[in-house]
Design brief:
Elements: E1 2-5, E2 35-38, H1 45-48, H2 52-55, H3 58-63, E3 68-71, E4 80-85, E5 88-94, H4 97-103, H5 119-122, E6 138-142, E7 153-155, E8 171-174, E9 179-182, E10 202-206, E11 209-212
The structure holds FE2/S2 (inorganic) cluster.
FE2/S2 (inorganic) cluster (FES) is lined by residues 145, 147-150, 174, 176-179, 192-193.
């Protein structure tokens, strides 16, 4: 059983306000993708009928931690889609070749370049690699700063700009207290945020369909 979760577009690149609701694709192109949510354990129609009133409102299931199924087929290089899982914003970013290449160049500036800290909480085994993801180009991460919980803003454009170093390669800025993260959600050294952004459990159930919240095939 599945239904379509509602999302609403962000009207500007994410600022570092505390997270309240998923904000959708944060890119200049602002493409929107419908999200199909479902609980893998829900059986066929014959089983679901007696409980239809229980299962119908997916809000309750999502709040309880149900996995979220996401079609990413329309996500273009350089774009970011935000979905809500367990009340948290989860970012899905299709990184460009340039953004991927930049990841290898600044390990020395990162607090935990190999994602070795709190691995069971922050980085599943399948994301403990140079790009912190299952597929190199697709990053999936929880958009909540590991300092005090603000949602970092997109700073994908490389180069000198306010509040960022001149050699900025693209990533995220948490304007609450100035923490910076690269395009793999890895935190830079000497910032208030102690850790990299969390990579949630996830898996691909088809080439362009992600399941956020589950990472084991039944
Ligand atoms: S909450 Fe992000 S730097 Fe403080």
């Amino acid at each position: 059983m599945s239904d379509v979760a509602s999302t609403s577009p962000s009207t500007s690149p994410s600022s570092s306000a505390s997270f309240h609701k998923a904000d959708g694709i944060d890119s200049s192109r602002r493409t929107w993708i419908a999200i199909t949510c479902g609980v893998g354990a829900v059986g066929g129609a014959a089983v679901a009928v007696p409980f239809v009133s229980t299962f119908a409102p997916s809000e309750r299931a999502r709040a309880a931690g149900a996995a979220v199924r996401v079609d990413i087929s329309a996500l273009q290089p350089g774009e970011k889609l935000t979905v809500e899982w367990r009340g948290k914003p989860v970012w899905i970013i299709r990184r460009t070749p340039e953004q991927l290449a930049a990841l290898a160049k600044h390990d020395a500036q990162l607090a935990d370049p190999k994602s070795e800290r709190k691995p069971s909480e922050l980085t599943p085994e399948y994301a403990r690699n140079a790009h912190r993801s299952i597929k190199p180009e697709l990053f999936v991460g929880v958009g909540i700063c590991t300092h005090l919980g603000c949602s970092p803003g997109d700073k994908f454009t490389p180069g000198p700009q306010a509040s960022l170093p001149d050699d900025w390669a693209g990533g995220f800025l948490c304007a609450c207290h100035g923490s910076t993260f690269d395009m793999a959600g890895r935190v830079f050294k000497n910032k208030p945020a102690p850790d990299n952004l969390e990579v949630p459990p996830h898996m691909y159930v088809a080439d362009n369909v992600l399941l956020i919240g589950e990472d084991k095939k039944a």
